[in-house]
Specification:
0% strand; Methane Monooxygenase Hydroxylase, Chain G, domain 1; 100 residues
Length: 100
């Protein structure tokens, strides 16, 4: 899951760089680059969500000795999932900013 979240976060910087170039020049090439990086962020976030769902399902089948262990693992996975969700939200906001 960490690898998936890292992929999402690494895609945010190219989006911001391309958006900065677009807002300076309003070139269609830069706009297309921004849209492509947003699409990539959404794909990575979807993969992150799939891993998150798989981990949570696995936790339900695992025989934990203490309920608090299960609770903390579930919360950790949820917090990690929120990181990629926020990156996708940033991409959605950027898409709205470059919309015509």
């Amino acid at each position: 899951m960490v690898d998936k979240i890292t992929s999402v976060l690494k895609s945010v910087h190219p989006m911001v760089a391309a958006a900065e170039s677009y807002f300076q020049s309003f070139s269609e090439n830069y706009r297309a680059m921004v849209k492509n990086t947003i699409k990539q962020i959404r794909e990575y976030e979807f993969e992150s969500d799939q891993v998150e769902r798989k981990l949570l399902a696995d936790f339900l089948n695992y025989p934990f000795d203490h309920a608090t262990s299960a609770f903390h693992l579930v919360r950790l996975v949820e917090y990690m999932g929120n990181i990629s969700n926020h990156a996708q939200n940033a991409g959605d906001m950027m898409r709205a900013m470059i919309a015509r």
